[in-house]
Amino acid sequence: MERDQLNNLLESLVSLPKETDWVEFKMNNGNPDSIGKYVSALANCAILCVKERAYFVLGVDDLDHSIVGTEVRLATKKIGNEDFLLWLPKNLSPRLTIEHRELDVNGLHVEFLIVSPAFRHPVRFKNCAYIRVDSNLQKLDVYPDRESTIWQAVSRYAFERQKCLYGLNADVLKESFFIDKMASKLKQSSTSITSM
Fold it and tell me: In 3D, which of 76, 78, 98 has the Cα closest to residue 89?
């Protein structure tokens, strides 16, 4: 995701009238377990709200959505000897696609975790599933009706039909997936088949 796209995403999220079930703003919460619980809740709420992604954003005041910046740097954060960004998915079940992005806005640092929705079953962090209810983090088992709805939603979810990456321009797609090279190889293959 390029800088302009991140800026647009941030503007879109802070313009929401309030936090939603699929967006969480924090200023300096770098507590690993807290972040893990929120990621579980956000993934579970994303499938409930039929969203392609959910967002954990550090550096935004959750009351007035002003950009205040954060001192947290998730890319360099360690849990013991392990990088936080490797530790987090290991503690989620099922493992999710979580994109980490950073952005500086007028000298203020903002961190994003962009979270995929639950797809096989409710997402658990350290064997406990979470959800957001009215912007509050809650254990999912306290809300059996919502847990049932998640199970119904994930039963209709086709992982293979989801986007693995989004917001990429054509040049990045070509570079990342070697499209020109693949097209050339396919053309060579079809030429050799037709010449038989």
Answer: 98
**Per-residue pLDDT tens over the stretch 107-160:** 999 999 999 998 889 999 999 999 998 888 999 999 999 999 998 888 775 555
Nearest to 31 by CA among 68, 83, 72: 72
Cβ neighbours around 48 below 10 Å, total: 20
Strands 128-133 and 54-58: unpaired
Burial of 41 per CB tally in 10 Å (0-12, 13-18, 19+): buried
Show the CA angle centred on residue 22, arms to residues 126 and 86, nearest 5°: 40
Q: Tell me the residue ranges of DSSP E strands in 116-157.
A: 124-125, 128-133, 136-139
Residues 60, 25: contact at Cβ < 8 Å? yes
Joined tokens for residue 114: 């962009």
Query: What is the rounded distance in angstroms from the CA atom of residue 137 to the CA atom of residue 31?
Result: 15
Please give the radius of gyration of the chain, using alpha carbons only, rounded to the nearest integer. 19
Instruction: Report how far apart, in Å, the C-alpha atoms of 154 and of each of 37, 41, 56, 133 are.
Output: 19, 15, 21, 19
| The overall pTM is greater than 0.70 | yes
DSSP state of 74: G
Which pLDDT tens digit goes with each residue over 45-60?
999 998 999 999 999 9
- Distance (Å, whole) CA 187 – CA 193: 10
